[in-house]
Amino acid sequence: MFSKHYNILAALLLSLLMSPPAVAAQGYDISYVWSRNLSSVKDYRDQVANILGPSVARHLKVVTKGDLYGLIYRRNGNNESTTRVVKSHTKLLRARGLDAVSPIKTRNWQLAGNATLPQKIEPSGKPVKAVKTVSQRKQIQDLETAVEAYIGELRRSGKIARDERTGWSVFDFTTGKKLVTINEDTQFQAASLVKPFIAAAFFHKVKQGKLVYGPKSRRHMQRMIQHSNNPSTNWVIRQVGGPKRVQRILEKHYPAIFQDTLLVEYIPANGRTYKNRASVHDYSRFLYAVWNKKIAGAREIKRLMALPSSDRIYTGVPEVPKGTRVYNKTGSTARVCGDMGILSVKGADGKRYPYILIGIIEKQRSAQNYTSWIRSRSEIIRNVSAIVYKGVIAQHNGA
């Protein structure tokens, strides 16, 4: 296993599908590692091949996207079969000291060396960004590396368990730069992080004239977002037509945003919701759309997410200055601790510098002591938020 650049699922999907794919046609590959160091990825490929054997080795491909190199198993299988293989490979690799693997949607992978795996080329779902200077690339790499180094140290010291994985994303609205992309396209259990997505589906039906946003729905919506109230969440889901209807609305009307979201269940009475899933990238795209008013109900969703509530990205983070505006939603179960939000910090020049920060820690098995686990993982997210604030403000020359 190589240095702290391993296991980065970074800016892979800058060429993402703008129109909804046919569900039956969606295939899945397996992702092992992402790094800016090609030789490290090749070395990792050799380690994986030696452990998993020749039948797997011949399907392992070193691919490239932007300034990243990755190792994938090109299989284009369905979700169920790919998940089985992921579990099997993870067990074998972890036993030899390597990292867990993840399913990832089949893409138009570009092989390192400019050869391309055959598949339809997909248009970009992101605005074209200006070419980065060497200095800008170094700043971005330094922030991502700082987050990686912190998480890596926690793993080495046992403060993040072997059955846990993390995902992180940072986007600076002022510069239009993605500063951190770690495990960004991996599906994680959604917990309550998905509740603003449910709000978007509700507001889409309001926009269509099929629902009314009145005093009762406003009360439930506020309880759902501000207080993370599960009965109110289920009330909102029922108004939309159930989980499947929420999923269809998001997929059909906002395919460029909700590419890895799977909403299949109401929130159970005990709050143990483990089936709904989404990627860090989906949360990032959603927050970008809310900020830029590119999704139904954006103004109200933003207002609701700004109401005083719990957070893990500002409160308890002394590095982030007082007066920072916070728009966020947390998610907590015995297997997931996360926060996704926008922080609008004020620089020394008096200007606001808004940025997206998403952090998720997912545990394979339920924590034995929920309170202790959530408290310690919340602290990890707060520490990453401190690192990110320093990195973002550095992008603006310490403004």
Automatic annotation (TrEMBL):
Keyword list, A-Z: Hydrolase
SUPFAM superfamilies, sorted: beta-lactamase/transpeptidase-like
Keyword Cell inner membrane: no
Chain ranges of the Beta-lactamase class A catalytic domain: 168-353
Coiled coil: none
Superkingdom, natural source: Bacteria
Catalytic activity: a beta-lactam + H2O = a substituted beta-amino acid
Gene Ontology BP terms: beta-lactam antibiotic catabolic process; response to antibiotic
Keyword Metal-binding among UniProt keywords: no
Enzyme class: hydrolase
EC code: 3.5.2.6
Any one GO MF annotation of this record: beta-lactamase activity
One Pfam family recorded for the sequence: Beta-lactamase2
InterPro entries: Beta-lactam/transpept-like, Beta-lactam_cat, Beta-lactam_class-A
PANTHER family: BETA-LACTAMASE (PTHR35333), BETA-LACTAMASE-TYPE TRANSPEPTIDASE FOLD CONTAINING PROTEIN (PTHR35333:SF3)
Family statement: Belongs to the class-A beta-lactamase family.
Protein name: beta-lactamase
